[in-house]
Amino acid sequence: MTAPRHVTGVVKFERLFRVAASLDVDKQDLKRYSDFINRKIHDLLIRGEAGAKANGRDIIEPFDLPITKGLQESIHRFREIDAEIGFEPILDRMTMLPSLDLGTSYETENRLPDIAGGLSVGLAHSFKIIEPDLKHPHSENWERSFAIFGLLL
Fold this sequence. Notes:
By secondary structure, the protein is mainly α. The chain has 6 helices and 2 strands; from the N terminus they run ααβααβαα. It has helices at residues 2-21, 29-54, 69-85, 88-94, 106-130, 139-152; strands at 59-60, 103-104. The longest helix is centred in the N-terminal third of the chain and has 26 residues, at 29-54. The protein starts with a helix and ends with a helix.
C-alpha cells in the first residue's frame, strides 16, 4: 500500500516542476527536494518563533512567519498549479514540524503545505533564472538554487 502512494508522490512531484518551470526532475531528486523544503520551513519557523517571543507570545502564528512578497506570489501560483495536480496532500505528509521552543498554532500548521508549495514554485523558477535553457537539473543546479535561498531565507 505504501508503494502506490510513493509512486503517486513522485509523479506529482515531477509534474509540479514540469508545470511550474518546464523542468524534468526525477525520483532521485525527491530526497534533495524534501530536505530543502524541510530546511526552509524550519528556517521560517525559527524566525517566526523569534517574532512570537519578541511579542510575548508562546505560540507561533501565521503572521509571525517572514513571508515575503515574492514568496506570497509563489504561494498563489502554487495554489493555481495545485488545483490541477493535487500535490498539497503530499506536501502535508512530507513537511515535518521541527523541534522548537514555542508551539505553533493550528492555523500556522495548516499553512505550512501552501508555504512549502510556494517554496517549491520559487525553487523551480530559480533554476530557470540561473540557467534559462535548463531542462534537467543536476546536482550543481540544485546546489546553486539552494545557495540563493540560503542567502534570502
